[in-house]
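Changelog note: in this version the structure field was regenerated for every chain. One regenerated record is shown below for reference.
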Amino acid sequence: MDICIARQPIFSVHKKLFAYELLFRGEGDECPEGVAGDRATTTLLSSTFLTEGIEKVTGSRPCFVNFTEKLLLQKVAAAFPQNRLVVEILEDVNPTPEIIAVCTELKDQGYLLALDDFLYHPRFDPLLAIVDIVKIDFIQSPVDSLQKMLRRLSRFDHLKLLAEKVESYDEFEKAAKLGFHYFQGFFFSRPEKICMQELSSVKVNLLRLLAEVTQKTTTISRVEAIVSSDVALTYKLLRYLNSSHFYLLEKVESVARAIAFLGAKRFRQFVLLAIISELATEKPE
């Protein structure tokens, strides 16, 4: 099955490449109708990190990836390397105490956090104290309201500002003068569509694996037998372990060794991502 994503670069005020934003795409230029945000993100993460390899998609640069409230609470982000993933919190995520706790934990683990399509409201103050980057739609924000919002954000002196939808040099100059640190939009580059082959796991294997890893009496040999019976799961597990995240001195080619190296917590995170990606919602016809 072909999976397509959009990759758009993000630049610094000196027009140096800082990162890429990755978005799930179908055959057209938009996210396919009927594909929920949870599934779009988990499919993107699975394809780029577990199947293709993030180095092939973004080189040495980190990637911004959208996270829904559900995925944040499920701690999906923690399965991926801190130096490669910027957790982009969607604008409709409610800053509940549970979300604040999850974001604090991610920050403590070394992840960069960004707020997407931000519009100021006092209820976001606890989140603003944690996140690193605030993304603001430069086109849709009138100058007076934008300046008012920037004054409010100036209380959080650790924040970096990212101007989205910068479409001309004039807009870039205006955003830079207002104090924005990063820039994204058609002035720099249109999103580039990248398609890759995604390997699908057998759903019954995922369900068996879920049942196995939640048992206190499970063994590596039983888990290994399930993973080894599924080509896609085996490939993704070994790709995940042999990524730059783990800095291994030699390549791991054994499923049993991979499971033992990851340990129970990290392996459960891997299984969670695979299950969410395949089973969270029905694939659109």
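Spot check on this record: The chain is about 40% helix and 20% strand. Strands lie at 2-12, 17-25, 63-67, 85-89, 112-115, 133-137, 160-164, 182-183, 192-197.
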